[in-house]
Amino acid sequence: QVQLAESGGGLVQAGGSLRLSCAASGRTFSIYVMGWFRQTPGKERTVVAAINWSAGNTWYADSAKGRFTISRDNAKNTVYLQMNSLTPEDTAVYYCAAGPPGYWAARGTYRYWGQGTQVTVSS
User: What is the pLDDT of residues 36-80, one digit of tens each?
Assistant: First the structure.
């Protein structure tokens, strides 16, 4: 089993920045890819970014390109999402996820999920 714990969410004004963290514990050796998803009420949970755990390759949704950066600290079993130039459209609950090899953008790839952290961007 893998446990994921997100932190770093909060309230920020448009144009501001936040850094989300996700600490993994348990059978972390089984993790191949880690990703960040987000969800708003009545909407599907969609991918924001993902990273290959060992090689560090990254992938981004179009909405995140140029503004968000995903990174990891393998020694700390932690993945980060640096979010810059935030807009109200970024308001959502952000979830960390981990899983075996698979398509980075598909929810079904990920076996483990955190509880989510709220990000609210005011205008």
Answer: 999 999 999 999 999 999 899 999 999 999 999 999 998 999 999
C-alpha distances (whole Å) from 49 to each of 5, 96, 122 are 17, 10, 22
Instruction: Fill in the amino acid letter for 29.
Output: F
- Distance set, CA 73 to CA 4, 16, 22, 24, 49 (Å): 14, 24, 10, 11, 16
Cα four-point dihedral sign 96, 8, 87, 66: negative
- Residue among 61, 36, 53 nearest 117 (CA): 36
Quote the CA–CA distance of 41 and 22 in Å, as a whole number. Answer: 22
